[in-house]
Amino acid sequence: MAASSRFSLAAARCSLRLLTAALVLLALSHGAHSHGAALSSSFYDGSCPGTRDIVRRVIQDARVADARIPASLIRLHFHDCFVNGCDGSLLLNDDLRVGITTEKNVLANNRSARGFNVVDDIKRALENACPGIVSCADILALAAEISVELAGGPSWSVPLGRRDATTTTNIESANNLPSPFDPLKTLQEKFRNLGLDDTDLVALQGAHTFGRTQCQFTQRNCTAGQRAGALLNLDGVTPDVLDNKYYGSLLQGRAQLPSDQVMLSDPSQRQPPRRSSAGSPVTRMTFLETSRRRWSRWGT
Ligand code: HEM
Ligand SMILES: *[C@@H]1O[C@H](CO)[C@@H](O)[C@H](O)[C@H]1NC(C)=O
Ligand SMILES: *[C@@H]1O[C@H](CO)[C@@H](O)[C@H](O)[C@H]1NC(C)=O
After folding, report:
1. Euclidean distance between CA atoms 28 and 38, whole angstroms
2. Is the CB of 216 under 6 A from ligand 2?
3. Which end of the chain is flanked by fewer CB atoms within 10 Å, N or C?
């Protein structure tokens, strides 16, 4: 409860900042429309009814050439929301005239965050259909929602109607994105700062059920002769499917990232993954349901 009120606060702060911000049109953030703070999954039903279909089509096309794309897109949404709320600021490039230092080069993103070209394609397709309507922050949120669905995860409708940041980025906060080498206490603290509790942490880390990691970030830190940037599947069992296999590997000590494995170092953290990894349909649903609820709340 405390969490959801802090979320609305974050959203409010975001629009407030935008109201006072000088209007600068940047390549990726055209939508200078004003509207109330209330988010709703039907936000674009009147102004751009094809929004969901357009986003889905572009992601589906991209996925044909690159199976990793849904994972990469979810991660972008995460890295956007973690820094000053979901305001699309991750997409901004350096613009010194207006004091923007891009978040794309911070440690957690540099040579790591990817999928920006697909976001550009989605933006272009939406601009063709409905110029100046759909915010970039909403594109990231929708892309995450649809990526989960395409990867076989639960479907849900993210609330929409976010405003884009146009003049501010927050490098300090972007530098504070979680590191794969953070101890559990630090991860918990970073999530708590956003109103996310331990259950949220466990559920959200479940996103590591698909996508890739460079071996330099893994528990093994590469094998002999491997380049630091060599790619490994985050989930060795079903690399491109959003399911709960990740939790099985975690319980066997075989999650790729130290930051995944460290969740088991606290006895109080053992319960959720243990329960959801048992494999029965009921416990599977518990994980998926938890994720769905957590993910949709987090997305606002
Ligand atoms: C708890 C803190 C987290 C840490 C320390 C962390 C760290 C990482 C690291 C190091 C990688 C590999 C990046 C690379 O090799 O370039 C990665 C990939 C990924 N992360 Fe996380 N992550 C965290 C939470 C999350 C959350 C909350 C989500 C989404 C809800 C997420 C989604 C992903 C996905 C989907 C990938 C694969 C991306 C791709 O293949 O392009 N992560 N994460
Ligand atoms: C990004 O990574 C590359 C290669 O690791 C490095 O040369 C570059 O300095 C990094 N950029 C920033 C801003 O840290
Ligand atoms: C990974 O291994 C490389 C090469 O041995 C080393 O330079 C680097 O510090 C290691 N990274 C971690 C996080 O241990």
Report:
1. 23
2. no
3. N
**Residue 217 · residue 230 · CB < 8 Å:** no
Query: Are the C-beta atoms of 93 and 27 separated by less than 8 Å?
Result: yes
Answer whether 105 contacts ligand 2 (Cβ < 6 A). Answer: yes
| Closest C-alpha residue for ligand 1 atom 33 | 75
Write down the CATH number for the domain with range 2-174. 1.10.520.10
Q: What is the pLDDT of residues 178-220, one digit of tens each?
A: 999 999 999 999 988 888 888 778 888 889 999 999 999 999 9
Domain extents in the chain: 2-174, 184-298
Q: Is the dihedral of CA 6, 9, 15, 19 positive or negative?
A: negative
Q: Which ligand is nearest to the CA of 101?
A: 2
Q: Tell me yes or no: is domain 184-298 CATH 1.10.420.10.
A: yes
79 is catalytic: yes
